[in-house]
Amino acid sequence: MTDGHARWELYRAALASDTARPGLLAAVTAEADGALASAVVGEALERVPRADRETWVQALAPSVRAFSERRSRELGILEDLRSGAEPPTLGAELVDGWSDWLQLRIGAEVSEPSVLRVLAESGRTKRIRRTATEALTG
């Protein structure tokens, strides 16, 4: 298939199916369009077990791997915080290293007040700070 939009629709259908994912990984490895492969992996990372994420990231060409590497790391941070783990040195410096995507997700999905306070005070955007403040005030 030469049409990237048509391939994307096939990839999306495969992403929705647990049984299709092994074949999807092989297809991503063979995908000539690096941006499309990266988009598929980005979507897959939230659907596959944490232990499998590195395999998905490594399926990408090195030139398009950076986004998925970061997303995989940030998903791990989000999952840890959701489970109640506190980052080792919680502060504005740590939050600065988090993407807007991660900051928003933490504000919406994490209930730990110390984490939410730091985001409410030091989140990168007004939306992030507002989301964290609203989560704090319930």
First and last CA, distance:
49 Å
The chain-level mean pLDDT equals 92
- In helices, the fraction of residues equals 55-70%
Q: Helix/strand/pairing class, anyone? A: mainly alpha
Number of helices: 9
Order of helices and strands: HHHHHHHHH
Rg, alpha carbons: 17 Å
* Unreliable stretches covering 5 or more consecutive residues: none
* Morphology: elongated
Largest sheet: none
User: How many strand segments?
Assistant: 0
Task: Please report which band the strand proportion falls in: under 5%, 5-15%, 15-25%, 25-35%, 35-45% or over 45%.
Answer: under 5%
Explain this structure:
This protein is an all-alpha fold and 138 residues long. Helix content is 68%, strand content 0%. It is built from 9 helices and no strands. The longest helix is centred in the middle third of the chain and has 17 residues, at 66-82.
Task: Summarize the topology.
Blueprint: H1 4-15, H2 21-30, H3 34-45, H4 53-58, H5 66-82, H6 92-96, H7 100-109, H8 113-122, H9 126-137
How would you summarize what this structure contains?
With 138 residues, this protein is mostly helical.
Q: What descriptors fit this protein?
A:
single chain, 9 helices, 138 residues
